[in-house]
Amino acid sequence: EYKSYLSMGFKFAIDRGGTFTDVYAENPDGTKLIYKLLSEDTHYSDAPSEAIRRIISNYSGCNLSYPVDTDNIDWIRMGTTVATNALLERKGEPMVFCVTRGFKDLLHIGNQARPSIFDLKCEFPEVLYNDVVEVEERVIPFQNKCNLYPQEQGSVIVEKPLNEVKLRMDLERVKKSGIRSIAVALMHSYQYAENELKVEEIAKELGFSNISLSHKVMEMVKIVPRGHTACADAYLTPHIQVYLSKFMANFKGNMKGVPLLFMKSDGGLTQASSFTGSHAVLSGPAGGVVGYAKTSPTDTPLVGFDMGGTSTDVSRFDGNYEHVFEATTAGITIQAPQLDINTVAAGGGSCLTFRAGLFLVGPESAGAHPGPTCYNKGGPLTVTDANLMLGRLQPEYFPNIFGPNEDEPLNVSATKAKFAELTKAINEYLGTSLTTEQVALGFIDVANETMCRPIRALTQGKGYDTSDHALACFGGAGGQHACSIARSLGIKAVFVHKYSSILSAYGMALADVVEEEQRHCGLAFKPENFSEIDAQVENLKKLAQSKLQKQGFKKPDLVPYLHLRYRGTDTALMCRGSSLAATCATGDYLNSLEERYRSEFGFVIQNRQVIVDDVRIRGIGKSEVKLNNTKVCSV
After folding, report:
1. Distance between CA 538 and CA 559 in Å, rounded?
2. What does the pLDDT look like over 333-391, one tens digit per residue?
3. In this structure, what are the phi and psi dihedrals at residue 260, rounded to the nearest 5 degrees?
4. Nearest-CA neighbor of 502 among 312, 291, 272?
5. Quick check: 135 and 173 in contact, CB under 8 A?
6. Of 305, 306, 525, 576, which residue is the least packed, with the fewest Cβ within 10 Å?
7. In the beta sheet, which residues pair with residue 632?
8. Of 170, 244, 161, 238, residue with least CA distance to 202
9. DSSP strand pairing (260-263 vs 269-271)
């Protein structure tokens, strides 16, 4: 009966990580609360739901049961690793890939890239689909210089119409096998979407529950990454929807009327109904980038260092979020706006092993259960144990929540015993007389170097001096390694926010609602085309503005970008118009291209025509959450 004296509601920002679930909450009286619990535990089925139940119960003095009443919840914002884990562990939804006839093995062949060019064993990337349907249809782009179809006009030539009868037969066969999710990627659908829409229409008639069309998921050229992205969307979206259904079922009325927003890979929030697989892979780490970007006390470029229990995420911020539009995660190329975040499998829970004379850290992780050896649940030695061994963790400052019954302190003696056993094996193999502390420090050095490599790739690899940056340290394990990392990289300043252990969750509270609109253009960047390019920009602005206004944002920010490349090259860069003399109505894109091209590649191509591959609008609805933390309490 606590409702009567609540003048405001609860606000929750939650980051469900691989090991821990972090929560930033605001109580009805304005106090701020931070909360952390294990993502997986035998005492509850879903960590975010349990955190919300406990916080409301503690505040009200009532031990609430499920389903939780939502009358006094203002909003919930979440980032989750559900999609990432499903992709890594290949536990998504069984799905079929529909592609133009003759391209059945397109994604299996891929782009023939070999990351390790001297590796004699070349492995094909895995595919996500269980079956392939070849769609009888063919369209080709119209070109003036082509003599095969001199009478044809328009953006594309329909060489072979869609064979609807055969498609229906093939989809009926697939449905009988139990598959209910479809990815569709037809040739040149970014220009001619009618055939993909017809496939969707037939699939809906046959009762398929999830249909991902490549031109809707990401309307860009290059069918290989577009096909991979559509497959990832069809593979992960049903998995996300199942999780959302279970999460909302823990609340009365399935959370009807409660604003539930999810963090996308591009650092923006979106409604739960629009949260799809292709935009969810970096949902959790994106919150951390927003967190340190919004709370930075300086204009100095920042390197984000987010060390959690399972992995470490590094990123860069220099006043603008750095996005990439094609990235490979777990062997799958996804073509969608994503924050440029590099992830390495080295975290507080990364396992320590000695193999063939080498100290190895990760990629295996002890996870939330059983966890490190010091958790006293029979887990392996981890980076956390190495820090405990070196005295960097003080057991008396930790609550008694460990052991089988979660009522014991950190078990220092178990960690020391296992390190003594490992040190003995190392000394016997190497013929040395190392102490347990030296062995622990050796593993820490290996972990630190593993985490330095992606930072160098984000800075030095893109033409930036690493020493010109400050290190923004956060994550549960970040503070134990930040100074060593900074020293190795020549960084002179380390920023640690007071919410550093839950900064990803706090970033979700501060994040803006974002709507992205993108369309293929294909025009040369020259004065006679500027009016048409400007018209496309305005059309996309109206679409983004309309979507945000429906969500209550009266005057959203609308930021235009052009995806530009030099004719004859394959690498396009997403460029924002500068404030110099405008080449288009929205800014000088040519100068922006030259600056970015010179920064990344060290040169520009003079007297070469520039092509506009895509037009993009990033619509931003500003968050109303304030940074002034007046009252703070912690649990």
Report:
1. 11
2. 888 888 988 878 788 888 899 988 889 887 788 876 788 898 888 889 999 999 999 98
3. -115, 115
4. 291
5. no
6. 576
7. 32
8. 170
9. antiparallel
Task: Report how far apart, in Å, the C-alpha atoms of 445 and of each of 194, 367, 387, 459 are.
Answer: 56, 21, 11, 21
At 341, list the tokens.
């975040």
- Token output for 414: 């178990």
Query: Which CA distances in Å does 491 have to 300, 318, 635?
Result: 12, 15, 33
Half-sphere exposure of residue 156: CA atoms within 13 angstroms, side-chain side = 18
The answer for residues whose C-beta is within 8 angstroms of residue 391's C-beta and 6 or more apart is: none
C-alpha angle with apex 364: 246 to 80, nearest 5 degrees? 25
Residue 134 C-beta-side C-alpha neighbours within 13 Å: 8
Q: What type of residue is 321?
A: Y
Count helices and strands in the chain by DSSP H and E runs = 15, 28
The Cβ of residue 84 has, within 10 Å, a number of other Cβ atoms equal to: 23
Residues 6+ apart with CB under 8 A from 163: 135, 136, 137
Q: Would you call 21 helix, strand, or coil by DSSP?
A: strand
Q: How many CB atoms lie within 10 A of CB 21?
A: 28
- Rounded CA-CA distance 278/417 in Å is 45
Measured CA to CA, the distance from residue 230 to residue 335 in angstroms comes to 9
Helix, strand, coil in percent for the chain, rounding step 5 = 35, 25, 40
Q: Provide the residue type at 497 as one letter.
A: H
DSSP code, position 578: B
Using CB atoms within 10 Å of the CB of residue 225, give its burial: 0 to 12 exposed, 13 to 18 middle, 19+ buried.
buried
Residue 204's DSSP bridge partners are none
Residue with tokens 């860009």: 220
Of the chain, the end-to-end C-alpha distance in Å amounts to 23
With beta carbons less than 8 A apart as the criterion, state whether 36 and 23 touch. yes
pLDDT given for residue 168 in this prediction: 93
Angle at 558 between CA 552 and CA 562, to 5 degrees: 145
| Separation of alpha carbons 7 and 72, rounded Å | 9
Q: How far, in Å, are 90, 198, 202 from residue 345 at the CA level?
A: 17, 43, 43
Distance CA 542, CA 545 (A): 5
Radius of gyration of the chain (CA): 26
Pairwise CA distance, residues 16 & 398, whole Å: 21
Question: Could you tell me which residues come within 8 angstroms of residue 622 by beta carbon, excluding any fewer than 6 positions away?
Answer: 512, 553, 556, 557
Question: What residue has token string 């502390």?
Answer: 437
- Assign residue 582 a region: left if phi > 0, alpha if psi is -120 to 50, beta otherwise? beta
Name the H helices within 212-282. Answer: 214-217, 223-249
Tokens 């490190």, residue located: 372
**Which residues, 6 or more positions from 227, have their beta carbon under 8 angstroms from its beta carbon?**
97, 99, 106, 107, 183, 185, 214
The model's pLDDT over 273-327, given as tens digits with 9 standing for 90+, comes to: 888 888 888 888 888 899 999 888 888 899 999 887 777 889 999 888 888 888 8
In this prediction the pTM is 0.82
Of 224, 218, 5, 267, the C-alpha closest to 97 is 224
Which residue has 């092509």 as its token pair? 611
Query: In the numeric block, which tokens belong to residue 46?
Result: 């879903």
Show the low-confidence residues of the chain (pLDDT under 70): 1-7, 115, 125, 143-155, 368, 578-587, 624-635
Residue 523: predicted pLDDT: 87
Q: How far apart are CA 545 and CA 539, in angstroms?
A: 10
Which two three-digit tokens encode residue 162? 């869609």
